[in-house]
């Protein structure tokens, strides 16, 4: 059972991400030390923890499946970003990723 990764809303979120890749393809030097990888991983973990806390009625099996999908999400974004994955994030990238994960959280909430 895939809750997040097979939904139409998720596919729209991925399309939105790909449509905004220009945000990541910049020559702007970042003053942040946090890597894009860390931001994506942290945002994924925070999104899933928030989801599980808000959805107390779902069973443990469903929770575990959602967590596994979070791992797949991180791998998919890593694949999309390629060599940008290990670069320090600019402020614009951080803001985009924060917004993006709000969209994903809304997508996940709509599936339950």
Task: Provide a descriptive summary of the structure in words.
There is one protein chain. It contains 4 helices and no strands. With 112 residues, the protein is mostly helical. The chain has one domain (8-23, 33-111). The longest helix has 22 residues, at 60-81. It is elongated. The mean pLDDT is 88.
Summarize the structure.
The chain has 112 residues and is mostly helical. It has 4 helices and no strands.
List keywords for this structure.
mainly alpha, 112 residues
Q: What layout of secondary structure does this protein have?
A:
Elements lengths: L7 H12 L16 H19 L5 H22 L9 H21 L1
Q: What is the N-to-C order of secondary-structure elements (H for helix, E for strand)?
A: HHHH
User: Beta-sheet strand percentage?
Assistant: under 5%
The total number of structural domains is: 1
Oligomerization state of this entry?
A: single chain
């Amino acid at each position: 059972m895939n809750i997040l990764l097979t939904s139409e809303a998720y596919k729209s979120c991925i399309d939105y991400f790909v449509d905004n890749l220009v945000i990541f393809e910049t020559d702007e030097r970042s003053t942040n030390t946090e890597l894009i990888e860390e931001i994506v991983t942290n945002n994924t973990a925070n999104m899933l923890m928030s989801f599980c806390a808000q959805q107390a009625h779902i069973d443990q099996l469903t929770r575990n499946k959602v967590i596994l999908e979070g791992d797949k999400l991180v791998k998919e974004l890593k694949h999309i970003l390629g060599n940008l994955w290990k670069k320090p994030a600019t402020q614009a990238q951080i803001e985009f990723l924060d917004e993006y994960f709000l969209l994903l959280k809304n997508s996940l909430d709509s599936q339950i």
